[in-house]
Design a protein that fits this description.
With 283 residues, the protein is an alpha/beta fold. The chain has one domain (5-232, 266-277): Aldolase class I (TIM Barrel, Alpha-Beta Barrel), CATH 3.20.20. 51% of the residues lie in helices and 18% in strands. It is built from eleven helices and eleven strands. It has helices spanning 5-15, 27-40, 50-56, 58-71, 86-94, 109-125, 156-166, 190-200, 214-222, 232-248, 255-277; strands at residues 19-23, 44-49, 76-83, 99-102, 129-134, 138-141, 144-146, 170-173, 178-179, 204-206, 225-230. Strand 1 (19-23), helix 2 and strand 2 form a beta-alpha-beta unit. The longest helix has 23 residues, at 255-277. It starts with a helix and ends in a 6-residue tail after the last helix.
Length: 283
């Protein structure tokens, strides 16, 4: 069933577990995510970046995910990841996205509050939940590039003021993760997670979790993280399985047969991440 992000994350926050948020850009990825969630009896969040929307088309991608979510036996939220373009955000709201991220983290605090509060007001009137971000997460995520030197940790006091002024439903925080493949092992600020959770007592989001050691993600969840964003791990699994299939049968030309191994590989990644988040049998 299609639900809001807040429907999923408020329950995760109360139950002290996290829910995987997986990026999609086509039918195969969406199918892999939902089938894995159903087999694990887990709620799931399916994310679309602005880049994915540009690639597949807003109406096309929305229709695929919405229909599959509505037919699913577990709660599924359709989420816009890193929304920075007002027109794209409005398009998603009009076309049935049930959750929106407004990413104003590139702005100074006051401007971030202004743009986030505007989207929260509009989306809230439509019954759509809103994720916001304070602090800058390093690395590259589609159209967003943040130099490591510009990445910054979330200030707990600022986070409290930010949520008070914007009324967002969940908050992505900067605690040491980054988008894309890691060059070294990430070092998460667990004390910062625990402090912010204690002050806000609301769903917290950790971006850039592909490549973060499982033990660190599990600890972050135990301290209050409720949404785990995964994208790179799915892409790498798909690419590896597809290459191996084509190497083993260079004469195959049926797209269905070519794409199925990659789809199955992504499905296994999703199942592993669901276990890591602690959301198995939480549907």
């Amino acid at each position: 069933m299609l639900v809001t992000g807040d429907y999923i994350l408020s329950r995760a926050s109360e139950g002290n577990y996290a829910v995987g948020a997986f990026n999609t850009s086509n039918l195969e990825i969406t199918k892999a995510i939902i089938e894995a969630a159903e087999e694990m009896n887990s709620p799931v969040i399916i994310q679309t970046s602005q880049g994915a929307i540009k690639y597949a088309g807003l109406k096309n991608l929305g229709s695929i995910v919405r229909k599959m979510a509505e037919d699913a036996s577990v709660p599924v939220a359709l989420h816009l990841d890193h929304g920075t373009d007002f027109n794209v955000i409005m398009g998603c709201l009009r076309d049935g996205w049930s959750s929106i991220m407004i990413d104003g983290s590139k702005h100074e605090f006051e401007k971030n509050v202004e743009v986030t509060a505007e989207i929260t007001k509009i989306a809230g009137a439509m019954g759509v939940s809103v994720e916001a971000e304070i602090g800058k997460i390093g690395g590259q995520e589609e159209h967003i590039v943040v130099d490591e030197r510009e990445a910054s940790m979330t200030d707990p006091a600022e986070a409290v003021e930010f949520v008070k002024l914007t009324n967002c439903d969940s908050l992505a925080i900067g605690v040491g993760t980054a988008h894309g493949p890691y060059k070294g092992e990430p070092k998460l600020d667990f004390d910062r997670i625990e402090t912010i959770k204690g002050l806000l007592k609301m769903p917290l989001v950790l971006h850039g979790c592909s490549g973060v050691p499982e033990k660190d993600v599990v600890k972050a969840v135990s301290l209050g993280i409720n949404k785990i964003n995964i994208d790179t791990d799915l892409r790498q699994a798909f690419a590896k399985a597809t290459r191996e299939f084509l190497d083993s049968d260079a004469n195959e030309y049926d797209p269905r047969k070519i794409l199925t191994p990659g789809m199955n590989a992504m499905k296994e990644v999703v199942k592993t991440k669901i276990k890591m988040c602690g959301s198995e049998n939480k549907a």
